[in-house]
Design a protein that fits this description.
Strand content: 5-15%
CATH class of the largest domain: Alpha Beta
Helix content: 40-55%
Strand order of the largest sheet: 1-9-8-5-4-2-3
Structural class: alpha/beta
CATH architecture of the largest domain: 3-Layer(aba) Sandwich
Number of domains: 2
Number of helices: 19
CATH topology of the largest domain: Rossmann fold
Distance between the termini: 26 Å
Shape: globular
Order of helices and strands: EHHHHHHHHHEHEHHEHEHEHHEHEHEH
Length: 463
């Protein structure tokens, strides 16, 4: 039987909910001759002189997405024209007001002052605004179709470069640098975002948990696609494509933190034209709630979600499931696999022996140890990344699903998560799935769980 709290009024219009928000005053790119900048950039895109794919190889240490776009355009002009603008010592807004008085040839050099004096969020807003105006320019010239994919890449990568950095206070400089450099968006993930935007359908983002890959959602994605949604199944940073690749290179899983993974998904979601539904399992369910708390979800479903700060129950079965990682402190920075017997206890305790072996061979991969150590210390560390903004009134509707026989995240943990979330003014519901373990999204009864999630999503976002 599902429990629910009081329903909220209808979710605001999706367009109003886009995280870019209104452009700050003084940054309207068409005012005061700014159309010249847009025209130059548009011509660069159409001609191929601007290769936006280069942005995917730029480190976040130079996190100025628009500056990089303009820098790619103006390299050929730099030696000849950069002096006058630098000498003027203009900040971003003054430079934009100066633009009509200067030769159009000077405009590409505005990258030296373009982002100075603006807060990071304003930079992000302005970047998105410029991309939209470039789209307008290309559409007017009949060239939008040819440049669409590169524009989508610019938006996604630009958001990535400007995304706020989150870290635990206890993280060392080396760890922070590793976390930053590990943030990657794959070509496949860019293609999924572009496809979602081109179809115009309601996107649904699926987030996998520990010891699994995005392929664990393949059947779910088809169900949602068949029902009119567009499905995205991004990986965690540096996830291999297949179980076989994971076995060959287990080291790629090591060192990923909860905050890093959440930021990675925030980046991907930032490249979507519509706010998505988000569905996550296990640690993916925790990430789903983190992203919902950041106002990135139109509706959320967290399935057997890992606990966050404030969730206090710690059943013996949970400790036993986490023991393969937590028994050795060195595992914090390692990738840790499960043996079959460990997988059988943690994931596949509610299915037959034959099915358990099939699930292990098909889906099980190593996992980063760090998220489990973060979860273990969450209630002792006020700066932990393992925390959820449960009070945000714009969180959106949330459904928590619990497998009755789950050893890894037993119902006691899911119930405690519900009690943390239930005071949110948005719709918050919880439902227990009888006779199911932690493998409930991949075992023989996966369709029952998928249909439950689909029914909840349908209530709040139409396909």
């Amino acid at each position: 039987m599902a429990k629910t709290n009081a329903a909220r009024p209808a979710v605001r219009d999706l367009k109003q909910q886009r995280q870019w928000g209104p452009r700050p005053r003084g940054t309207r790119v068409r005012a005061h001759g700014h159309a010249a900048v847009v025209a130059l950039l548009a011509r660069g895109l159409a001609s191929g002189l601007l290769d936006l794919a280069l942005l995917t190889r730029v480190g976040r240490a130079h996190a100025e997405g628009l500056r990089l776009i303009v820098a790619a355009w103006n390299q050929a002009y730099r030696a000849r024209f950069e002096g006058p603008l630098l000498a003027a010592g203009r900040d971003q807004r003054t430079a934009m007001e100066l633009a009509p008085q200067q030769s159009v040839e000077y405009l590409p050099l505005m990258d030296h002052a373009l982002l100075a004096g603006l807060r990071r969020q304003q930079e992000l807003v302005w970047t998105e605004g410029l991309v939209e105006h470039i789209e307008d320019e290309l559409e007017a010239a009949g060239m939008l179709g040819a440049a669409r994919s590169r524009l989508d890449s610019a938006r996604i990568v630009g958001h990535w470069l400007l995304a706020p950095r989150r870290r635990e206070d206890s993280m060392t400089t080396a760890e922070s640098s590793a976390s930053t450099n590990a943030k990657t968006i794959t070509e496949h993930e860019l293609e999924q975002c572009q496809r979602a935007n081109q179809t115009g359908r309601q996107p649904v983002v699926f987030i996998h948990g520990l010891w699994l890959l995005p392929s664990s959602w393949d059947r779910w994605a088809k169900v949602f696609e068949d029902n009119g949604y567009v499905a995205l199944t991004p990986g965690w940073p540096n996830d291999p494509e297949t179980v076989e690749e994971a076995a060959e290179h287990p080291e790629v899983f090591a060192g990923k933190s909860i905050g890093q993974i959440a930021d990675h998904f925030e980046t991907i979601i930032g490249g979507l034209d519509k706010k998505p539904a988000i569905i996550g399992h296990s640690t993916g369910g925790l990430l789903t709630q983190i992203l919902a708390g950041r106002v990135l979800a139109a509706v959320s479903v967290a399935i057997d979600p890992a606990p966050f700060r404030g969730v206090l129950p710690l059943p013996i079965s949970t400790l036993k499931s986490a023991f393969p990682v937590l028994h050795n402190p060195a595992n914090r920075e390692r990738a840790v696999p499960l043996t079959y017997d460990q997988f059988r206890y943690s994931f596949a305790n509610a299915v037959s022996e034959d099915e358990a072996k099939q699930l292990y061979d098909t889906y099980a991969v190593p996992t980063p140890g760090k998220p489990l150590f973060q979860a273990a210390a969450a209630n002792l560390n006020p700066w932990t990344e393992d925390k959820v903004d449960t009070k945000n009134p714009d969180r959106g509707p949330l459904l928590l699903l619990s497998g009755e026989l789950d050893h890894t995240v037993p119902p006691a943990i899911v119930n405690a998560s519900y009690h943390q979330q239930q005071d949110n003014p948005g719709v918050t519901e919880i439902e227990k799935i009888p006779g199911r373990g932690h493998a409930l999204i991949i075992d023989n009864g996966w369709r029952q769980v998928a249909d439950t999630a689909l029914a909840f999503v349908r209530r709040f976002v139409k396909s």
